[in-house]
Amino acid sequence: xxxxxxxxxxxxxxxxxxxxxxxxxxxxxxxxxxxxxxxxxxxxxxxxxxxxxxxxxxxxxxxxxxxxxxxxxxxxxxxxxxxxxxxxxxxxxxxxxxxxxxxxxxxxxxxxxxxxxxxxxxxxxxxxxxxxxxxxxxxxxxxxxxxxxxxxxxxxxxxxxxxxxxxxxxxxxxxxxxxxxxxxxxxxxxxxxxxxxxxxxxxxxxxxxxxxxxxxxxxxxxxxxxxxxxxxxxxxxxxxxxxxxxxxxxxxxxxxxxxxxxxxxxxxxxxxxxxxxxxxxxxxxxxxxxxxxxxxxxxxxxxxxxxxxxxxxxxxxxxxxxxxxxxxxxxxxxxxxxxxxxxxxxxxxxxxxxxxxxxxxxxxxxxxxxxxxxxxxxxxxxxxxxxx
Length: 388
Prior knowledge:
Elements: H1 12-19, H2 57-80, H3 93-141, H4 151-175, H5 187-190, H6 198-201, H7 212-229, H8 235-260, H9 265-290, H10 294-315, H11 328-343, H12 365-371, H13 378-387
Helix pairs in contact: 2-9, 2-10, 3-4, 3-8, 3-9, 3-10, 3-11, 4-7, 4-11, 7-8, 9-10
């Protein structure tokens, strides 16, 4: 087969129908909430003031209303009965001190959770980078010395590309504690491995003690070794490939670290307890001076404190299906599209096919003036570059 072989890969739906006529692969769950894109337009995002979906409001609504209802009861008892006469405090110093301590604890909790979220995003970026590098090295760099790959060898190259796509999907499902194999973004891409063939994968789960993403890296390592043994790659390419595979293992290990190391229960539990004690004591501290104003004060205070505390719990594990989790489905889908585009091109790229280049863009006037050039010709630019 010629070195400029190309592949027009089938769609996922076609793969599903081909590998499993019953079309029984599990459909991917969709994100509950579409992640916001960063906008380049300046201005205050007024629409975010009225958003409920994807926020912590549904989670904190009940405790906020409960604490507010307590404040109403306290105000009524203070104004219309003598229940609290003589023992309610006249100073808010204690609550002020507790508020400062509570604020520091909440900041630490939120920062810790956000750091875990950003760790997850950085690791995904690193994993995709190494997958892209491996894809380039395999698709462009693996070739025989005579310029021809046999049909079997070319099929092995395509299988290796499928393994790259399956690694991203396998890592995603592993981080979500989904140990099934028959997902539509996973099963078709590992079906060339005998133990994961279409006949064996339906309804099966990953064997206990095995980690599918690591199995995939083992398969990739074996492919690299075979390519080197057949002299389809040189030593430098082999080292680059192995380095990328090692980096994938490192990323996956750090994925496990983020997922399996939550904030200690002792810390998260005591923080929730302190927040609730503070909010329950707040109306008793201020009702003597604030009267009915106690109710909105307690409502706003509970909304802020419970909201900030709940944000930490929401984002500390960024790998699930929650609204604010990382859009891992999008990461995997975008990477698959990139691989399809790469595999639809020729497997060899030659600079000898380039057309004539546009050698120099017009030199700006301010640059010509600064460098003492009269017209900005090619010769003048070459002299300036040589002198610099």
